[in-house]
Amino acid sequence: MFKEERSGYKFEWKDLGDIEQGRPNLGPTTSVSVYRLMQYTLRDVLITRYGVKAANEILYEAGKLAGSEFCKNLMNLDADFSGFVAQLQDTLKNLNVGVLRIEKADLDNMDFVMTVSEDLDCSGLPLVEETVCDYDEGFISGILKTYTGKEFEVKEVDCWATGDRTCRFTAKLKHF
Amino acid sequence: MNKSKLGLIAESLKELAYGRVSDLMEKLPSDLEDEDLALLVEEAVKLIKSYSEAQKFLEALSDGRLEVEPPARNYFISPFKQLHANLKHLTWQTQQVAKGDFNQKVDFLGDFSSAFNSMIESLKEKRLIESALEKSHEELKEANSKILDSIDYAGSIQSAILPPTQQLDSILSSYFVIWNPRDVLGGDIYWLVGDKEEFAFAVVDCTGHGVPGAIMTMMAVTSLKRAEHEIGFRDPGALLERVNILMRDGLRHRSRGKLYDDGMDIGVCYVDRVKRKVIYSGAHVSLYVCCDDLDAVEIKGNNHSLGYKSSNPNYRFTNRELHLPEITDLYLTTDGLIDQIGFSKGLPFGKRRFKRAIVNNYGSSPEHKRRGLLKEFETHMGDENQRDDVTVFAISL
Question: B194 exposed, middle or buried (CB, 10 Å; 0-12, 13-18, 19+)?
Fold first, then answer.
């Protein structure tokens, strides 16, 4: 189920399992450090095996798949845009993922700017003068694609790791 | 030499400490041989550039120009970039709220969050109250519309109990009627029975206006018809006495145990056209007579209404008999005309003004008389609201 060869993504929300049953004492949450430990070691191995560019792309793609499944399974897709944003903010806050805020939403041109503060992936990282939230970029593009049905190019322009207190993402329609 | 270069650097940094960006560093050569000095210059230039960018950004931010793009990779302004992001987000949220989206919520912005969120809650409550009010308003409008439709329909039913024009024309050779209920329905009616040679005509003013008044008129007409069927119309006094009893019986039955006390005023005039004889009997209603030799004369009715609890069932109404000369006008009117308050002085229309209108219009056509009286009445009333139902029934003999 998890390990067979595949040519397309097979992930389903139910693959996350019954956490309540499986962790009756420890519960459904864990430490942010543990999450980051997994992400940054995985990144390390991916870069080592496939190079920086490919590693970033893999993280983006994984994030996109996660965002899409997250949106399909936890969000009400019938809400209007501002209702959807309010719901997304609430869900991300309740799951301790980050504090989402919209700076700009041009619905005519599908052009968005948003920030995520206290981001799960990067907040508190040492300053490294490079953005690191490739997974988040993909996550946001997955959410937007599932909600709007359109492909988006999401780019992180500010990151805690670049010395900014909040991560800022731009999202524009992808032109093929 | 190095000392003077160091001096320039020191001077630049001193300027920076005072919040000023100097161009002193530009005087330094770009190809410094001393590596340490070159590194120092490079870092000092970066520092001054970062400061300069930060200063421009902060000035824009303090002016509220949120459209400014924050400079990238500038560590001076990290907290301000967060503030900038928050302000832009709040601007967007406020725009959504202005569009009516009350799902917005602000988190983790200290006191501002609770102030903003409680404002949204208040707006939500206000919206709910407005929606409830709007719904109630719509329901009331619908209910009102149904009531008005019903009243309009009742109005046409009430018109149907009045003597039809065909009947009026067949009995009376010269007449006019003014029947102006204050509302769609009225408590006034007029009545006619008989034929060309002998007939009786009447005006009736029942208690109240609108729906209650209209219901009373139905009862009044029924009682009048029954009384006329029992005793005829040649004795108006007896007719009133019989109507008094019928009304009292009917109303007592209807209002048993209630505080209502309803009745009516009426004037009935019997006319024998051949003998040119008139017998008049009234209950708080007068007959006005106008002929060649006389000014308009008021023939008063009795000071006793019909149908009220206080109305004496044994009361005898006076018959006043008149023999009329050629060309005589007879007018019956309810008190709605006489008592109507005028706009300019707040005085009632009054009997004197009514009599004057009768005299002034004597000898003219019925339509001319009607228009003349209405004009006089409307001029007197001006912008004042009509206070009561108004009925005038006039004939010429």
Answer: buried
The per-residue pLDDT for B209 is 77
- Nearest-Cα distance to chain A for B84, in Å, is 9
- Strand stretches in B101-238, DSSP E: 175-180, 188-194, 198-206
Flag whether pLDDT at B250 surpasses 90: no
Cα–Cα dist B384/B15, whole Å: 83
C-alpha distances in angstroms, B361 versus B174, B246, B296, B335? 14, 38, 11, 20
pTM of the model: 0.62
Mark yes or no for CB contact A158/B72 under 8 Å: yes
Cβ–Cβ of B89/A165 closer than 8 Å? Answer: no
Look at the block and give the residue holding tokens 């959410």: A143
8 Å CB contact between B228 and B194: no
Which chain A positions have a beta carbon within 8 Å of B88's beta carbon?
Answer: 101, 103-104, 113
Q: What angle do CA B153, B159, B164 make, to 5 degrees?
A: 140
Q: Which residues of B touch A164 (CB under 8 A)?
A: 78, 81-82
| Closest residue by Cα to residue B190 from B250, B200, A72, B150 | B200
Q: Do A86 and B72 touch (CB under 8 A)?
A: no
- What is the sign, positive or negative, of the torsion defined by CA atoms of B61, B63, B67, B72? negative
Position B313, amino acid: P
Is residue A103 within 8 A of residue A115, CB to CB? The reply is: yes
pLDDT tens readout for residues B346-386: 899 999 999 999 999 998 999 999 999 999 999 999 999 99
Tell if the CB–CB gap between A163 and B73 is shorter than 8 Å. Answer: yes
Chain position carrying tokens 């009935």: B268
Taking residue B372's Cβ as centre, other Cβ atoms within 10 Å add up to 15
Produce one character per residue of B72-97: b if its CB has 16 or more CB atoms within 10 Å, e if not: eebebbbebbbbbbbebbbebbeebb
